[in-house]
Amino acid sequence: MRSMFTNPVLIKELKLRFRAFKSFSGIMFYLLALSIFVFGFIFVSMEFNLSGFINSQESVLLFSLLTFVQLALTLFITPGMTAGSISSEREKQTLNILLTTAQSSFQIIFGKMSSSIVFLLLLLIAGLPIYSLVFLFGGVSPTQLLVIFAFLILTMLAIGSIGVMFSTILRKTILSMIVTYGSMLFLTGVTAFFFLISMRMNVSSTTGVTSPSIFAYFWGTINPIALMMTLISPEMLEEFYEVTKIHFPIWAGYLIFYSIVTVVCLFIAIKRLRVNMKKAR
Amino acid sequence: MIEIKGLTKKYGSFYALQGLDLSIGEGTVFGFVGANGAGKSTTFSILSTLLQPTAGDAWIDGKSVTKHAEEIRKLIGYMPDFFGVYDQLKADEYLDFFGSSYGIPAAERKKLIPQLLELVNLTHKRYEYVDVLSRGMKQRLCLARTLIHDPKVLILDEPASGLDPRARIEMRDILKQLKSMGKTILISSHILPELAEMCDEIGVIDNGKLIAHGSVSTIQTQLQGEKVLTVKLQDDLEKAISFFEENPFITGIETGEHQLSFRYRGSDEEQMELLKKAVLANIPILSFAEEEKDLEDVFMAITKGVDEA
């Protein structure tokens, strides 16, 4: 744990990041967007029901919408923060110097990855007071909020490690960005499409869903939007189990899949950062 | 200190380096001379564990660069030909980052950084952001960085490239200081006379092959088979040209105002005979002299010879 805080790359990256004006403007615009959304929602709700108050169902709706806004921001900001971590060093001609130091490849990748994650965590934490407004109106438990945050962090780690991996493998930042955003779109959009197709294929027009569909379950369980929907609404979860006929917890499937993605991507990044001098020639 | 055996790097069918063999003793300042793309940076990249050789191996302080890359990194200080700096770091923070990258404790770094900045004459820039430093200052800061972990070997890829004459002289003085500290230094440069002044040994590399290796004087003697003679005349240039053209040892006559120069392959006795005949033929000679050859001439002659072969 101590080595994490003494990681030279992490310290240097944090120093550089917090000296850059764009970091502060980024946080400001993020909070501004979140605030406009929340206060706009509250204002519109009160105007529509003409009662001058928000009931708990509307509070749950606000919570759900905020969760999706947070998820969308996480999905869009994380590739931008991580997909240039190594390739930008290469483009700025600082990588070779870094690679000839005594730091291990693990230290360098870990430092790069953690500095991006720390900044993203700061974004999430900075947004917490706005997020917590939903508690004023009831209908949402703190545990639910914590679970959602835990899965947002897991998603961030997975997308972040995909970004770091592509940044290590591909020489150009722009290419790495495109491929990382492509991967993110695959995990959110294409998996949802595959889920719907697999689900449709498993439904008979006469008997409905009778057999378990591994494919529908798989595509559904790795989709961040599907997971968030099931975490927010228990009815959605029941519906998901109903159409897939597999009762293995969706959050567990998500946790396993994205943990593997994180570990594999970081492993590849660590292995590919330096040339393997021992490799058979 | 450095042993290189059969070092080869191949990209497809192109050889960036072909069977390089070299031995460099401890405390030696070795100058690597070669045109762009000759294989200098490839050699340095392999020695710095940044590039895997296709064949062969190199040893630094008895450790193989292919088998003990992690240990090699602690032994060397590498300065690439092109490098960037972190814009938002100050000079002392830049050195501190690299110090911590080599695992040097914070207290030790605190003492080391002012010493290194003093060595490279950057004490007054200690709290300046690195991106506002001039190119020469950045080069010197990068040199200070290579020294932070007190490496036995310095690998400096064209450290003086792109510098103005003053910055070059400053860089040369620092390198002389490092030489006096007993460091083994590998340095490449296009400024050949500068290399001659500081280097104990020189290696000339061309098309991935080491074509000459030894002390500066040894390499210069390799050219002794051909010399350039310059003859200054009072007048009658045409007569002189037709006289010298007849000599079988003379090629490549170039003329100037009241003078001509040519390449001469004959022995010293034949040269004496040539002068005697020219005087007897009433050629109005004011002076008859051999041109001093600097390292650049040597390099041009050697590489030309290789290309022609």
Automatic annotation (TrEMBL), chain A:
Superkingdom to which the source organism belongs: Bacteria
Protein known as: ABC transporter permease
GO cellular component, one term: plasma membrane
Single GO term (MF): ABC-type transporter activity
TrEMBL record, chain B:
Residues covered by the ABC transporter domain: 2-232
Keyword Transmembrane: no
UniProt name for this protein: ABC transporter
Highest taxon, organism lineage: Bacteria
Organism phylogeny: Bacteria, Bacillati, Bacillota, Bacilli, Bacillales
Stored PANTHER family: ABC TRANSPORTER, ABC TRANSPORTER, ATP-BINDING PROTEIN
Molecular-function GO term, any one: ATP hydrolysis activity
Family matches, as InterPro entries: AAA+_ATPase, ABC_transporter-like_ATP-bd, DrrA1/2-like_C, P-loop_NTPase
SMART domains given in the database record: AAA (SM00382)
Pfam families reported in the protein's UniProt record: ABC_tran, DrrA1-3_C
Family per record: Belongs to the ABC transporter superfamily.
Keywords: ATP-binding, Nucleotide-binding, Transport
